[in-house]
Design a protein that fits this description.
Elements: H1 2-10, E1 14-20, E2 26-32, E3 36-42, H2 49-55, E4 60-68, E5 75-81, E6 90-94, E7 97-98, H3 102-113, E8 121-124, E9 127-128, H4 130-139, E10 144-146, E11 149-150, H5 158-163
Parallel strand pairs: 3-4, 3-6, 6-8, 7-9, 8-10, 9-11
Antiparallel strand pairs: 1-2, 4-5
């Protein structure tokens, strides 16, 4: 999780700055430009929040609850809470297992309804299927997808195993 989060942060805009260390030395570093946030797709996406907080303590995090119908596989949005100015922010969308892509597509639609451009959304995922990634790119060609692995079979029940509720 931490490696994917760090690479997602590397994709965000930054400016150069001079940092004074606790020992008084000057160091030429970088700082993120204002206007970044994370959005986790509940519940498994929340597993990635700590990795984001470890790297960027003060980042704002929004949440979306989307559940798929067992029979039709249609995703339905039940809850969405974002920073009020999300339309001005770069968004790290966190969802660890990308299987069909339906859940992420619905999440991006909600973000677009709140004024977020797909080009500023970076999807952070641990495992993706080729079908899921292709579905998202067909619907939103400007979105960025970061994942550790693309494989035809994605692991299931990530959230239950991570949170110990299986």
């Amino acid at each position: 999780i931490r490696l994917v989060v760090e690479e997602g942060l590397n994709q965000l805009p930054y400016t150069e700055c001079t940092v004074t260390t606790p020992t008084g030395h000057k160091y030429e570093g970088v700082r993120f430009e204002k206007g970044n946030c994370g959005v986790s797709i509940m519940r498994s996406g929340e597993a990635m929040e700590q990795g984001l907080r470890d790297c960027c303590r003060s980042i704002r995090i929004g949440k979306i609850l989307i559940q798929s119908d067992e029979e039709t596989q249609r995703a339905k949005v039940y809850y969405a809470k974002f920073p009020p100015d999300i339309y001005r922010r770069k968004v790290l969308l966190m969802y660890p297992i990308l299987s069909t892509g339906n859940t992420v597509i619905e999440a991006v639609k909600v973000l677009v309804e709140h004024g977020v451009q797909p080009s500023v959304i970076i999807l952070l995922s641990l495992f993706s299927t080729p079908h899921g990634a292709k579905s998202i790119i067909q619907e939103f060609p400007d979105i960025t997808i970061l994942t550790t692995e693309v494989h035809p079979v994605a692991p299931t029940h990530f959230g239950q195993k991570y949170f110990g509720t299986d």
